[in-house]
């Protein structure tokens, strides 16, 4: 369960998609869907047993590292895990989680539940006002509990505080703090 480093593939998405296809004497596996984020890759992998045709869809989780610097030929690393390992990263998209078959593996079920909880705790849609249970202190010394989600530019979401200023709140705060939608 260590990190593997190599030269960064030209197409990281294709590299992992091809990696998820494999066959042994007992089973055949293929990816059903994959989401590649900057530092993690999630894939729903279907494995079919050759003997009895039993089918299982599980989640492959690859944590990724990119190393800057042209002199280092080992500028890309990954750590391959499955949902049964209970990875620390738990922001798997719903479209991958929905493809997974049920399992009686406790760690896999706990990780899947953690991912579902994290999906519920994402930043709300534009125009929604949220209230945090306790004030969030920012680097300028202000403390705020109420924010309205606004769009700035074409794609960027920010929060406008009750004082009219714009703020960013780390993802961790959305997950760790209690908040509710006001309107």
Describe the structure.
This protein is 18% helix and 40% strand. It has 183 residues and is of the alpha+beta class. It folds into two domains: 4-120, no CATH class; 129-181, no CATH class. The protein has a six-stranded antiparallel beta sheet. A five-stranded antiparallel beta sheet has the order 10-9-8-7-11, with no helix packed on it. The longest helix is centred in the middle third of the chain and has 15 residues, at 106-120. The protein is built from four helices and eleven strands; from the N terminus they run βαβββββααββββαβ. A hairpin with a 5-residue loop joins strand 4 and strand 5 (55-66).
What's this entry about, in short?
The protein has helices at 12-19, 94-97, 106-120, 171-176; strands spanning 4-6, 22-23, 27-36, 40-49, 55-66, 76-82, 129-137, 143-152, 156-161, 166-167, 179-181.
* Number of spatially distinct domains: 2
User: Order of strands side by side in the largest beta sheet?
Assistant: 1-6-5-4-3-2
Structural class: alpha+beta
Task: Provide the low-confidence segments as ranges.
Answer: none
Calculate the terminal CA-CA distance, rounded to whole Å.
45 Å
Average pLDDT works out at: 87
Describe the protein's topology.
Elements: E1 4-6, H1 12-19, E2 22-23, E3 27-36, E4 40-49, E5 55-66, E6 76-82, H2 94-97, H3 106-120, E7 129-137, E8 143-152, E9 156-161, E10 166-167, H4 171-176, E11 179-181
Name a few traits of the molecule.
2 domains; five-stranded antiparallel beta sheet; 183 residues; six-stranded antiparallel beta sheet; alpha+beta; single chain; 4 helices
């Amino acid at each position: 369960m260590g990190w593997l480093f190599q030269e960064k593939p030209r197409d990281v998405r294709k590299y992992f998609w091809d990696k998820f296809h494999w066959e042994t004497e007992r089973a055949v596996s293929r990816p059903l869907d994959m989401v590649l984020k900057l530092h993690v890759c999630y894939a729903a992998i279907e494995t079919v047993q050759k003997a009895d045709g039993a089918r299982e869809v599980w989640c492959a989780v690859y944590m990724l590292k990119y190393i800057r610097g042209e002199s280092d030929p080992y500028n890309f690393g990954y750590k391959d895990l499955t949902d049964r390992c209970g990875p620390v990263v738990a922001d798997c998209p719903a479209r991958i989680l929905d493809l997974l078959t049920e399992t009686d593996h406790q760690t896999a079920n706990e990780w899947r539940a953690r991912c579902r909880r994290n999906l519920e705790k994402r930043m709300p849609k534009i125009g929604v006002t949220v209230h945090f249970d306790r004030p969030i202190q920012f680097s300028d010394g202000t403390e705020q509990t109420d924010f309205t989600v606004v769009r700035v530019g074409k794609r960027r979401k920010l929060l406008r505080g009750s004082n009219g200023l714009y703020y960013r709140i780390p993802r961790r705060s959305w997950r760790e703090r209690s908040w509710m939608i006001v309107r």
